[in-house]
Amino acid sequence: MAKAQPEIEIDRVTKSFGEFQVLSDVSATVSKGEAVFVIGPSGSGKTTLLRCVNLLEDFEGGEIRISGEPIGYRRLSNGRRKRLPERQVAAMRAQVGMVFQSFNLFPHMTVLRNVSVGPIRIKGTPKEEAEVLGQDLLARVGLADKVDAYPANLSGGQQQRVAIARALAMRPKAMLFDEVTSALDPELVGEVLGVMRDLINEGMTMMIVTHEMPFARELADRVIFMADGVVQEEGPPEKIFEAPETERLQSFIRRFQEGRRL
Q1: What is the rounded CA–CA span in Å between residue 199 and residue 224?
Q2: Which residues contact residue 227 at a Cβ distance below 8 angstroms, ignoring those fewer than 6 apart?
Q3: Bridge pairing between strands 96-99 and 174-178
Q4: pLDDT digits (tens, 9 = 90+) for 173-214
């Protein structure tokens, strides 16, 4: 039987900020329904990689494909690349939802409006239909009673759950999560991880950058370890956490074990 086409393909992607190369020929795949966790020290390129997948960052080399379709650029006859018009980029970006460290909610909009505005403005969804979808998604993340609230009246954990619902409202093919619990008080982390756990169990295709090591070890289909802008190791969680091969990963895992975070 033929192997299924990956939902996300990252093929030898390079990215620099000035003279500093953040990503060096990074390749990775995420299959449909797979939860791939990306771990590594700060500054290893994890967030930049997600931002490239969502086209929030240009990348100089390589290719990223969603459902087999190259995103962001088209190849010219001379082999060089040209960035696509912003309208096409926005349509491609909508295929991949992203949730950030900061919540980025519109403070002047209600929770329901925050969730429904994307489908209305970007996809042309009728307002009534978008609001019904928004109500369903807010119920899904445990916030059915907050549709008329404003972000300032919510806890950090509630705001992050609204941000997840907002990303899901675009009906993306895959979801990207960038350290979504890092800005939360410890007692609020669990409610956000609970929503992510439900999405993983429902078969959502996900790429998750995190420092929540027990969460990654429990729920990942595969784990990618990045350091110095490259993929150092990848594999199932039992291999990454229990039998790391490189000294770089061994040192990283040991640091968490010593901090009693594993």
Answers
A1: 20
A2: 40, 41, 44, 248, 249, 252
A3: parallel
A4: 999 999 999 988 888 999 999 999 999 999 999 999 999 999
This prediction has a pTM of 0.92
Residues 6+ apart with CB under 8 A from 162: 103, 105, 111, 114, 115, 138, 141, 143, 146, 151, 154
Quick count: other Cβ atoms within 10 Å of Cβ 251? 12
Name the residue type at position 175.
Answer: M
For 199, the token pair is: 């999405």
